[in-house]
Amino acid sequence: MPFGRGFFLALAKSDFLNHRVTKWGFVRRATKHFMPGEAPEDAMGASAALASGGRGTIFTKLGEAITNRDEATAVRDHYLWMFDQIKAKGLPGHVSVKPTQLALDLDPVMCQAYTEELAAKAQATGSALWIDMEDSNYVDRTLALYRLVKAIYPDTGIALQAYLFRTPKDIADLMSVRPVIRLVKGAYSEPAHVAFPRKADTDRAYFELSDTMLQAAAAGTCLPIFGTHDVALLGRIAARAKALGVKPGQFEIHMLYGIKDRDQQRLRAEGHVIKTLISYGSSWFKWYMRRLAERPANVGFVIRSMLG
Ligand SMILES: Cc1cc2nc3c(=O)[nH]c(=O)nc-3n(C[C@H](O)[C@H](O)[C@H](O)COP(=O)(O)OP(=O)(O)OC[C@H]3O[C@@H](n4cnc5c(N)ncnc54)[C@H](O)[C@@H]3O)c2cc1C
């Protein structure tokens, strides 16, 4: 397929396109399907609407791999402000950060200090901090960061990717810290010696890992979060949870804003804890290419917005 997953993930790496495409009005309009707007206020407005239907929110400001320390400080300051806003508006909201936004590449000491500061603010404002997982080059450093922060702020969560061969061991190793794990399939372009090239293998690995996490939840040693829109898979996971005596609330389902919204509402009505991750900000190009890679038919939104 000419416009398959690999095509969009290759485009996501282009800094040239990142600067150009984000200025094109018709592409900006197409992103509306996946983000309520670029401003944090847009995201908070959408969060209030979701809250009235019983759904929580995870906020994330788009952008990754910043190029100087001042940018990391600005990201930290923004999220400190965001936690205050969440509290002031009474929103059921958490925040999710990419460690490279907080200078993981440039200054790991600064990254750790800023992540701890955000986790402390999350705790003080009755919220929680999530740490996203980026490409496989960052997994060791992100896990080390998580362990340090989790030891002080126990509600902190981390994303792990089912497509990586290493993830079963990473999950087993984390169990001693009573982890809060958001299991996702994985959104990056990875070499075949690191991750399953075939989606069917990732799907199988996801179910196996979900089983490990649910068994740990039954023993009270893990809070599993299933970050996927794969509703058939979620059905199997919910059935397995029931068989193990793990109740809704002892595990959660997280999905992205604008994707499978009716299923999000249905799952909420069935009693599951649902949180919707809302992205905002102007640096949406790489993130948007990953959404197109997940479902190339999404290009239809771009074409329709181009045609007006
Ligand atoms: C809350 C949350 C947090 C995440 N955090 C991370 C992270 O930290 N690191 C990381 O690598 N990845 C992250 N991801 C992305 C994840 O890795 C997958 O790329 C993404 O969720 C698509 O896979 P899927 O599990 O939905 O399953 P798939 O099997 O790809 O899709 C299942 C169904 O959902 C539909 N669907 C999936 N994606 C889309 C889309 N973009 N548009 C329309 N329909 C779609 C499919 O058409 C299919 O019907 C996150 C995802 C979620 C939901």
Task: Lay out the secondary structure.
Layout: H1 5-11, H2 15-21, H3 25-31, H4 40-52, E1 56-61, H5 69-89, E2 93-97, H6 108-124, E3 129-131, H7 139-152, E4 157-161, H8 167-174, E5 180-184, H9 199-218, E6 223-227, H10 231-244, E7 252-256, H11 261-269, E8 273-280, H12 285-294, H13 299-306
Parallel strand pairs: 1-2, 1-8, 2-3, 3-4, 4-5, 5-6, 6-7, 7-8
The site of flavin-adenine dinucleotide has 24 residues, from β4, β5, β7 and α12.
Can you put this structure into words, describing what you see?
The protein is an alpha/beta fold. It has a single domain, classed as TIM Barrel (Alpha-Beta Barrel). It has helices at residues 5-11, 15-21, 25-31, 40-52, 69-89, 108-124, 139-152, 167-174, 199-218, 231-244, 261-269, 285-294, 299-306, and strands spanning 56-61, 93-97, 129-131, 157-161, 180-184, 223-227, 252-256, 273-280. It has an 8-stranded parallel barrel, surrounded by 7 helices. Helix 6 packs across helix 7 (139-152) and helix 9 runs parallel beside helix 10 (231-244). The model has no long low-confidence stretch (mean pLDDT 92). Bound molecules: flavin-adenine dinucleotide. Flavin-adenine dinucleotide (FAD) binds at residues 132-133, 159, 161, 182, 184-188, 227-230, 254-256, 259-260, 277, 291, 294-295, 298.
Q: Which key phrases capture this entry?
A:
TIM Barrel, 50% helix, 308 residues, alpha/beta, binds flavin-adenine dinucleotide
Short description:
This protein is of the alpha/beta class.
How many domains in all? 1
Task: Tell me what portion of residues adopts beta-strand conformation.
Answer: 5-15%
Query: Which ligands does the model contain, each kind named once?
Result: flavin-adenine dinucleotide
Level-2 CATH architecture: Alpha-Beta Barrel
At CATH level 3, the topology is TIM Barrel
Which stretches of 5+ consecutive residues score pLDDT under 50?
A: none
Q: How would you sum up the major sheet?
A: 8 strands, parallel, barrel
Name the helix and strand elements from N-terminus to C-terminus, one letter apiece. HHHHEHEHEHEHEHEHEHEHH
The level of helicity is 40-55%
Order of the strands making up the biggest sheet: 1-2-3-4-5-6-7-8
Q: Whole-number average pLDDT?
A: 92
Structural class: alpha/beta
CATH class: Alpha Beta
Query: What is the count of helical runs?
Result: 13
Q: Whole-Å distance between the termini?
A: 27 Å
Shape: globular
Radius of gyration: 18 Å
How many β-strands, per DSSP? 8
